[in-house]
C-alpha cells in the first residue's frame, strides 16, 4: 500500500517505527505515527501541528503520560522462571539488543502477509495505525490527490479518533475539527502549494 | 534474589511447578532467539539447508517453520 506514499509520508512511517522501537513499545500505534509526522517540521503536517503549539517533545511527553503504566518489557518472557535455572534475562537481553536493536527480544515473532516468520527485530504496525494509514488513503482519494502525503496521514490519524495519536492532539488543546478543516484546505490539489 | 528464585534454591527445583515454568520460559526465549538468528542468516544469503544443518534439523523443518504456509508450492533455495 506504500507505493503511492510520498517521500515525506514514507519517512513518517519509518520514523514512527523508530520511535516505537526506541521507546520499547511492542508495536506501532497512531501515537508513533504522530511522532513520525512531528519529526519532520518542514512538512505540511509538521508545520501545521507546530503552528498549533504541538511539538515533538510535547507529544512524546503526553504519549508517555498516557500509556497505562510502564510498557511490559519482555511480554511473555518470564525472567523469574529463567532465574531459577541460572539464566539472567537482563544479560541475555543486553547481548541480543546490542546486535539486533532495542526490544528485539521483547517482541514475539509473528508472520507477515506472505506467511513468513519474522523476528522481534521488526516492529509491527498495530491495528489502529493500520486503520489510520488506510484512512489516509481514503482521505487522499476524497481530496483528489494522486499521492498519499504526510498531511493525509495526519487526517487518517485524526479520523482514528479513539487512537492515542488523536487523543494526544486533543490533550494538547488543539480543536480537531479546526485542524481537519485547515489540513483539507491546504491539501486541495494545487501544484504550487508548498508542503 | 526474587521470591521464586529463592524458592527454587530451597527446593532444588524438585518442584515441577517451578521446573516446568522454567522450561516454558526457556522455550519462549529460544523461539525468539531462533527467529532473530534465522532471519539474520537468510538476510545474509544463507540457504535453508545451511541454516538447518547448524540448527540440527531438516531443511524441510526449518523451511516450513520460517518460510510460511505456502512452503509446499514454493521452492526457495
Q: Which structural category do the helix and sheet elements of chain B fall into? A: mainly alpha
The CATH class assignment of the largest domain in chain A is Mainly Alpha
Indicate the overall shape of chain A.
Answer: elongated
Number of strands of chain A: 4
Task: Give the number of helices of chain B.
Answer: 4
Order of helical and strand elements of chain B: HHHH
Unreliable spans of chain B are: 71-76
The helical percent of chain A reads 55-70%
Distance between the termini of chain A: 22 Å
Number of strands of chain B: 0
String of helices and strands of chain A: HEHHHHHEEEHHHH
Strand count, sense and barrel status of the largest sheet of chain A are: 2 strands, parallel
Number of domains of chain A: 2
Q: How many strands, what sense, and barrel or not for the largest sheet of chain B?
A: none
CATH domain topology of the largest domain in chain A: Double Clp-N motif
**What does the average pLDDT of chain B come to?**
82
Q: In terms of structural class, how would the helical and strand content of chain A be classed?
A: mainly alpha
Average pLDDT taken over every residue of chain A: 90
General description of the model:
The complex is a heterodimer of chains A (195) and B (77). By secondary structure, chain A is mainly alpha-helical. Chain A folds into 2 domains: 2-71 and 122-187, Clp, N-terminal domain (Double Clp-N motif, Orthogonal Bundle); 76-118, no CATH class. In chain A, 55% of the residues lie in helices and 4% in strands. In chain A, the strands form 2 sheets. Chain A has a two-stranded parallel ribbon. Chain A has a two-stranded antiparallel sheet with strand order 2-3. In chain A, strand 2 and strand 3 (117-118) form a beta hairpin. In chain A, helix 1 packs across helix 8, helix 2 crosses helix 9 (164-171) and helix 8 packs antiparallel against helix 10. Chain A is elongated, with a radius of gyration of 18 Å. The mean pLDDT of chain A is 90. By secondary structure, chain B is mainly alpha-helical. In chain B, 70% of the residues lie in helices and 0% in strands. Chain B has helices at residues 3-11, 16-43, 48-55, 59-67. In chain B, helix 3 (48-55) crosses helix 4. The radius of gyration of chain B is 18 Å and the shape is elongated. Residues 71-76 of chain B have low confidence and may be disordered. Chains A and B meet through helix 5, helix 6 and strand 3 of A and helix 1, helix 2 and helix 4 of B.
Amino acid at each position: 500500500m506504500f507505493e503511492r506514499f510520498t517521500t515525506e509520508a514514507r519517512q513518517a512511517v519509518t520514523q514512527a517505527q523508530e520511535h516505537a522501537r526506541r521507546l520499547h513499545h511492542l508495536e506501532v500505534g497512531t501515537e508513533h505515527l504522530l511522532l513520525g509526522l512531528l519529526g519532520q517540521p518542514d512538512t505540511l503536517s509538521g508545520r501545521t501541528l507546530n503552528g498549533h503549539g504541538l511539538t515533538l517533545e510535547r507529544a512524546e511527553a503526553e504519549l508517555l503520560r498516557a500509556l497505562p503504566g510502564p510498557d511490559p518489557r519482555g511480554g511473555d518472557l518470564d525472567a523469574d522462571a529463567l532465574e531459577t535455572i541460572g539464566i539472567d534475562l537482563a544479560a541475555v537481553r543486553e547481548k541480543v539488543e546490542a546486535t539486533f536493536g532495542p526490544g528485539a527480544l521483547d517482541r514475539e515473532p509473528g508472520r507477515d502477509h506472505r506467511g513468513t516468520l519474522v523476528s522481534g527485530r521488526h516492529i509491527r504496525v498495530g491495528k489502529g495505525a493500520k486503520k489510520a494509514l488506510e484512512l489516509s488513503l481514503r482521505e487522499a482519494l476524497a481530496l483528489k490527490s494522486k499521492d498519499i502525503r504526510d498531511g493525509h496521514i495526519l487526517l487518517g490519524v485524526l479520523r482514528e479518533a479513539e487512537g492515542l495519536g488523536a487523543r494526544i492532539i486533543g490533550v494538547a488543546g488543539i480543536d480537531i475539527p479546526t485542524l481537519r478543516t485547515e489540513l483539507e484546505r491546504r491539501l486541495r490539489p494545487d501544484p504550487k502549494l508548498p508542503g | 534474589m526474587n521470591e521464586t528464585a529463592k524458592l527454587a534454591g530451597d527446593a532444588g527445583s524438585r518442584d515441577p511447578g517451578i521446573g516446568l515454568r522454567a522450561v516454558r520460559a526457556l522455550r519462549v526465549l529460544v523461539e525468539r532467539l531462533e527467529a532473530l538468528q534465522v532471519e539474520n542468516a537468510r538476510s545474509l544469503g544463507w540457504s535453508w539447508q545451511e541454516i538447518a544443518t547448524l540448527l540440527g534439523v531438516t531443511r524441510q523443518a526449518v523451511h516450513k517453520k520460517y518460510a510460511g504456509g505456502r512452503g509446499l508450492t514454493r521452492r526457495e533455495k
